[in-house]
Amino acid sequence: MSQTSELPDEILFFNILSLLTTKEAARTSVLSSRWRKLQINFAIEKKVKKLEMNLSNCRGISQYNKYFFPHKDFPTCNSLTTLRLKNVNVTGEVIEHFLSNYLALETLYIQSSDSLVNLKVAGPLLRLKYLEIRYCSVKKWRFQP
Length: 145
What we know:
The chain folds into two domains: 1-46; 49-145. Helix content is 26%, strand content 23%. The chain is built from four helices and eight strands. The strands form three sheets. Strands 1-3-5-7 form a four-stranded parallel beta sheet, with no helix packed on it. Strands 2-4 form a two-stranded parallel sheet. A two-stranded parallel sheet has the order 6-8. The chain starts with 8 loop residues before the first helix and ends with a strand.
């Protein structure tokens, strides 16, 4: 166990990640799932417009041990226009959460998510212009403008 793993999230976030550029902070996501969560929160705090999480080449993450995207812990972000997730497991419920809570979201790209089985794209405030789903396990989908 590393010394940083014993530090509270507040110290990691405010005393370490906040001193880094957004790009440097993004690199910390390979360290652990805890760092990935902190990195996502950091990006939202910085009001990023584009967020890409590509765990395709991360050691310890295999086809059978993919990172699950924590939508319940993910803060609302009104500035996010593009979300790209590669080799990150998301469910249809997570996608519905994104589309309902990230009202500026225009581009959504999901690749290699075995957990994405049911997909519903709907909502009265939907601004989505581009949706790409690749190498996922979608069996049932519904689109409703």
